Amino acid sequence: MKFPFFRREPRGPDTISTLYGMIVAQARLPCFYCDYAVADTVNGRFDLIVLHLALVLDRLAQDPGLHKVGQGIFDRFCQDMDHNLREMGVGDLKVPKQMRQLGEAFYGRSQAYRAAWAATDDAMLVAALERNIYAGASAAAAAAPRLAAYIREALRDLGAEPAAALAGGQLRFPEPEKILGINKLRA
Question: What are the helix (H) ranges across 62-139?
Answer without folding.
Answer: 67-87, 95-118, 123-132
